[in-house]
Structure of S-type anion channel SLAH4:
Amino acid sequence: MESLVVPCQEIQIKIDYPISRKKRKYTNLADAEPIVLMSVLSSLHAGYFRISLSLCSQALLWKTMVHLHSDLPSMPSYLLWYLALATQVSLCFLYAFKCIFFFDLVKEEFSHYIGVNYLYAPSISCLLLLQSAPLLEPHSVLYQTLFWLFTAPILTLDTKLYGQWFTTEKRFLSIMANPASQVSVIANLVAARGAAEMGWRECALCLFSLGMVHYLVIFVTLYQRLPGGNNFPTTLRPVFFLFFAAPATGSLAWNYISGTFDTVAKMLFFLSLFIFVSLVCRPTLLKKSIKRFNVAWWAYSFPITFLALDSVQYAQEVKDHVASALMFIFCSISVLIFLGVMLLTAANGKRLLRRDPVLWSATAPNDR
């Protein structure tokens, strides 16, 4: 019986290491740094100026408190102002680089029904930074020049945005209105306060009337639950705090225009106080938005700071125990929320730089 001989074949196995090559790609710092910078620039949007908005408004609160109460230390006011200045300059430089390298994303943000409102935020931050400056007088030439430099973008955006609400069929206010639309109102009212501080009463009245009339229109539109409000993402619900930020800023502006915290200023203050209490009594409204950290959380800070500024002026005018208690409560809440959001931002730095899917999901509610 013949034996069967099975021929042996030699098999060669070649092992490749794609993972090691992938890691080797990022070991060179010269190659990694541009990639990180481009990622940051592509993720950045005007909503990040909420951070500088909170810092600048907090610096203004401390400056006001130190001015009215000489026994308070002035060092926190100086530190906050320089921190706000550094943050604002950094964000402005980064956004300027984004305009150069990612102009298409900037155009998309300019056309977005939510993102366009936050293009006012850099100018608001600059105006608050100017008003809280420790060594700059309102009647100086430098102050007035910077005021017009920061107010010009607000008036330009007003012409564009409000003009669309009047004339463009696909961008009527009933379709485009959302809580973030109140940022444009706050911009005009902050500018009105700055003009009144310089003694330009007519200019201040013009900006105040422009802001308050549009606030009433936006408030009524959102109050009626028209289509625009139904397209607001859950993650941006902290922006609902702008409902009381606008009348609080209006009260502050009217205080400087009239020279006293009169009946009109008190009415706006009470309105903002009522809306604040209404929001606080409905915590389920914000329950879904606080599950994961987002830069929108900074929207909790600066509206309450504006309300605290109002309570300070109200306490100076009324001078009773209730007004003093309101001032203490809102100033304490403002400082605690500011510190809390700052600590959360430091602890979630990596998540802060992620690309925001909200601003790039659609250019208008109709597109959904």
Summary: The CA atoms of residues 117 and 181 lie 6 Å apart.
